[in-house]
Amino acid sequence: MITGKPVDHLPAQPMVMMFAAKHVGVEFIDYTKDGRLMAEAQLRTAEDYDIDCLLTCSDPAREVIDIAGDGSIDWFNDQGPAINESRAALSDKSRLKTFRIPDPLGGGRMHDRIKGIEVMYEHVRGELSIVGWIEGPLALAAELRGINNIMYDLIDDPPFVDDLLDFCAEVAMVYATPQILAGADTIGMSDAAASVIGPRLYDRFLQPRQKRVLETIKQKHPDVITRLHMCGNTDALIPKMSELPVDIFELDFPADLTNARGKLGPDKLISGNVSTVYDLLEGPPERVYESARNCHRVCGRKHIVNSGCEVSPLTPPENLKALIRYSRENEP
Predict the structure, then answer these.
(1) Considering the domain boundaries, does residue 3 fall inside one?
(2) What range defines the domain where residue 317 resides?
(3) Contact at 8 Å (CB) between 11 and 1?
(4) What is the number of domains present in the chain?
């Protein structure tokens, strides 16, 4: 966490998106469509719950819409926009040749996130970490092609996958810089689909592109913090993930934290792993507190108290407060 004042406790950075929208009483569709509204919801939620960062992730359709339009998107009032695989932008693979890298400052949905970052920075100016966000190469490929289609393509059409992942990596690299210039001190990269491929395919297709994206960000912006989020059980991928220039490994609750700490080594910063379902959604506050304690015990000093993935909007407020209370009552 980058902060303008010294702290003597663990940082707490739960992934609140739909929870933040509900907390301030706005429809999540409006939260995703208006960067200023997203910024206001993040700012108020961070203040009311004493959260140590502001998150700009919201949905998987920002890059998709700016690249290919919204024909593959379904919109919902009470959840984020979703990719409709039956209308995937790359149902016809030949369309990839017509795609161009979008302008992140061109007035589209990518630009909207940058506007939200500007509002956040105007209010906090270094007092809280601002986490910009990019879709990882496989995540964006799955959003453009459809998750089932891209899984078949990995086996049936490797040259197409190579071309698509290279394009998606380029989009991520282009999108990071204007977010940083707008005030983000951290860039989070989500590659949610990675946990459904094995280590062989990860090594062959995805890890080299993730590395290229993250190395490029580090070369251009040496002081920026990099953060990697891959949903699900990533145990088998940890050895190759450890080679990435990542400052914060955000691990979902199905991942084995002991295995991760052993493979990543003692100096890597690990965030997350508290169950968003069993603990935060369903458990009493005491169980949330103990889960945070267990994660801290395994990770040691290099740890950020966090949920494994997005905090459900149905999470009882007292459970989120218990998670943050653990961070406030304990030193690294």
Answers:
(1) no
(2) 18-328
(3) yes
(4) 1
Going by the DSSP 8-state scheme, the letter that residue 274 receives in this structure is B
Torsion 269-55-318-312 (CA) sign: negative
Identify the CATH number of the domain in which residue 25 sits: 3.20.20.210
Spatial CA neighbour of 8 closest among 332, 270, 231: 332
CA distance 70 to 28: 18
Q: Name the residue type at position 194.
A: A
pLDDT score of 80 more than 90: no
- Can you give the three-state secondary structure of 6-46, one letter per residue? CCCCCCECCCCCHHHHHHHCCCHHHHHHCHHHHHHHHHHHH
Instruction: Give the Cβ contact number of residue 100 at 10 Å.
Output: 8
Q: What SS3 state is found at 272?
A: strand
Close Cβ partners of 163 (under 8 Å, ≥ 6 residues apart): 96
Residue 250 pLDDT > 60, yes or no? yes
Asked if residue 266 lies in contact with residue 300, where contact means CB atoms within 8 angstroms, the answer is yes
Instruction: Return mean pLDDT, the chain.
Output: 96
Comparing 79-83, 127-131, 209-213, the range with the smallest average pLDDT is 79-83
Q: How many helices (H) and strands (E) does the chain have?
A: 14, 9
pTM: 0.96
Give the helix/strand (H/E) hosting 297. helix 285-299
User: What pLDDT, on a 0 to 100 scale, did the predictor assign at position 2?
Assistant: 42
